[in-house]
């Protein structure tokens, strides 16, 4: 079984390597690359790779977005501006909110059944923006909308395996990361690290900070030239592949951590009622299936320290979520 995948923002720092990685997937039969600039060039380049998928590039002219999205099974969105040093992800809201809103209007009209994977920041707000647009258009299915928080999970296994003195075994390190995708809304549950690792409290807190602010590390190192692109492309392709594998009927008992509307499954509702405050959206452990979210698993036991981290995350997230919802409420669609 193979699928039509669309990358919106395909000519960007994430979009190009992400498109390259998706071109390598045998789960993809058609790859539609859309951007406001240079998408045909990126598509021409990638199309020379001799993997089975057909690649086409689209620009806004001649209803490009509509044609790119037509019959899409999965739409991955890394469109929008990245951070520069000194900025928070929320500082991107003013520009990226309308970009994501307008793309969502296109998805509602031309690919209402597609899985939608949102990479554009601030994810805590852009996912609610997509949901609100799809709701207004009567096509919202919470099982099919995902905020991509995989990079936090990828970073956690890299940083924790390094701290455990086993950097070459990082792929074996599984660390739940829940909450949102910005600073203190990112909550690594290091007490559930597998293989289990015993860190003293100060190492533990250092690791939590590093995972929460891993994005800033890259923004600082790039010194004005943007934020994480290559590690994000890796993480985005990994998550998109998991969604497509599940859609093709290959089930996995390994959860993926992704930022979803908690109504997507009864397990989400249970998590919502157990959280120390209101949060309609949360990154949670999800088992994927043919229709997207199949089951939301419990977050599991947490230490008192992690409970405090969760409290802080929830209090910040709620404002991010309301900001996205209000933005669509006040938009003329
Ligand atoms: N979720 C995550 O973990 C994560 C990680 C890294 C970056 N990001 C976010 O991803 C976004 C993209 O980052 P980047 O480094 O690739 O930026 P970039 O500037 O290199 O690329 C963005 C691309 O989006 C395109 N674009 C702008 N408006 C568009 C529109 N209306 N339709 C289609 N395409 C449009 C631009 O032309 C550009 O090619 C940023 O918002 C960044 O903060 C998220
Ligand atoms: O840090 C950023 O702004 C980009 C991204 O969200 C990241 O976590 O690397």
Could you walk me through the main structural features you see in this protein, from its secondary elements to its overall organization?
With 333 residues, the chain is an alpha/beta fold. It has two domains: 3-147, Rossmann fold (3-Layer(aba) Sandwich), CATH 3.40.50.720; 149-333, Alpha-Beta Complex (L-2-Hydroxyisocaproate Dehydrogenase, Chain A, domain 2). Helix content is 43%, strand content 17%. It contains eleven helices and eleven strands. The strands form three sheets. A six-stranded parallel beta sheet has the order 3-2-1-4-5-6, sandwiched between helices. The longest helix is centred in the last third of the chain and has 26 residues, at 304-329. The model has no long low-confidence stretch (mean pLDDT 97). Bound molecules: nicotinamide-adenine-dinucleotide and (2S)-2-hydroxybutanedioic acid (LMR). Residues 8-9, 11-15, 34-37, 78-83, 92, 96, 99, 103, 119-121, 123, 148, 151, 181, 226-229, 232 line the site of nicotinamide-adenine-dinucleotide (NAD). Keywords: NAD, Oxidoreductase, Tricarboxylic acid cycle. Residues 4-147 form the Lactate/malate dehydrogenase N-terminal domain. This is Malate dehydrogenase. One of its GO terms (cellular component) is cytosol.
| Spatial sequence of strands, sheet with the most strands | 3-2-1-4-5-6
Give the DSSP E fraction (strand runs of 2 or more residues).
15-25%
CATH class of the largest domain: Alpha Beta
Number of distinct helices: 11
Number of domains: 2
The CATH superfamily of the largest domain is identified as Lactate dehydrogenase/glycoside hydrolase, family 4, C-terminal
Helix-strand topology string: EHEHEHEHEHEHEEHHHEHEEH
Bound molecules: nicotinamide-adenine-dinucleotide, (2S)-2-hydroxybutanedioic acid
Largest sheet: 6 strands, parallel
Rg, Cα atoms, Å: 19 Å
Share of helix among residues? Answer: 40-55%
Work out the number of β strands: 11
CATH architecture descriptor name of the largest domain: Alpha-Beta Complex
Uncertain spans = none
Report the structural category: alpha/beta
Shape: globular
> Residue-averaged pLDDT, rounded?
97
